[in-house]
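Hi U.,

Before I forget, here's the chain from the pilot set. I'm dumping it here mostly so it's searchable later in email.
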Amino acid sequence: MEKKITPSYLALSNLKKKPYRSAALLALIALSSALLLGSLILTSSLKKGVRGIQSRIGADLMIVPEGAEQKMQGLLLNGSPNYFYMDKGLEEIVNGVQGIERLSSQVFLATLTESCCDFPVQIIGFNPQSDFILQSWAKDHFNKRLINTGDGSHAEEILFAGCNIEAKKKTVKFFGRYHKILSRLAKSGSGMDNVIYADMDTLKKIYLDARERGYGFLSGDDFDSKVSVIYVKLAPGERPDSTALRIRRALENAGSSQKVEIIQSQSFISDLMGKLSSILVFLHAICFLVLVISLLTLSLVFSLSLSERLREFSILRVLGASHKELGKIIFDEALLLATSGGAVGIFLSLLIILPFNFLISEKIALPFAMSGPFQLVIFSAIIFVLTLAVCLLSSAGSLLRIYRFEPYGEVK
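Structure:
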């Protein structure tokens, strides 16, 4: 039985007849779609990460000891284990400043890589009664887990793990003692995903275990008199810079010898957005160059290919092929290249980004919240359609020439 010769069959045959040229075009299209999808995923994940850290901070001001600002930023961005302390008495002074609506403090401990601990991680102690940072984005966990007794205490250890924390059988060992993790928190894309949160009673147990084994975080027995950071939520209408100035004056008037730094959350986020903007400009420039290079290269290849095949098209015209059928051959070649190259490029991009998204997040040192499955499907569809559009557009010049083509290679 004879095989029916159709424009699609001729297009496929021509691609097979030129394997090296077809392979080069497929590689170009695949590389282009892979870079475009990778850039789109990175852009979305970085923006989502900044939004995540903005929602997780939940405070207008953060008060830390002098010299600890960079450490605090490293904790927020990457969850880098660290610890620093200041007098808990500062809370009372700060709480009396005009314009402050709520105030809560946290205490930091850092575990080690030695046999005493499962892995190095930042442990953050919080007070469930005054906390408005963790509870603002983990409300469901608190409602289920914080079982208060009559005296305001709770009936069990409270440990929440960031979504990147992997613990076997939901237990972790810190300084020789095992602790049960009650729940893992939702992903934020910030350093908070690499942190374990514990209530103050549980944190004190961990601290005492560390001290018994000779690991010193504080001098003496003054754990209860120390905090690492004080979070401040301002009353409506209050300005962070004005309130920060009032806090400094209050500390001076109280005769406090503790030197502090006051981090304005909005300024911190603005700095992040500045760094992010530089990366986004670079990614957008790459996308633009990839599109332009792909369009020009494919247009040139289709044009040269058409010039080489004028004799072939002349024979087809003499045999009765219409302009529309000749045009469909060019169209089908572009469509085959676009679908194959686009699919391969999207697959390769996902194959690289998905397994290594944690490594990417660490290297760029910025909040990075990987897009979810639904978003990835949408992004892949967008890039696939864009790849089709670029390939078909690059064949437009050849299509116009073929519609003007007449036998013997003459053009009307």
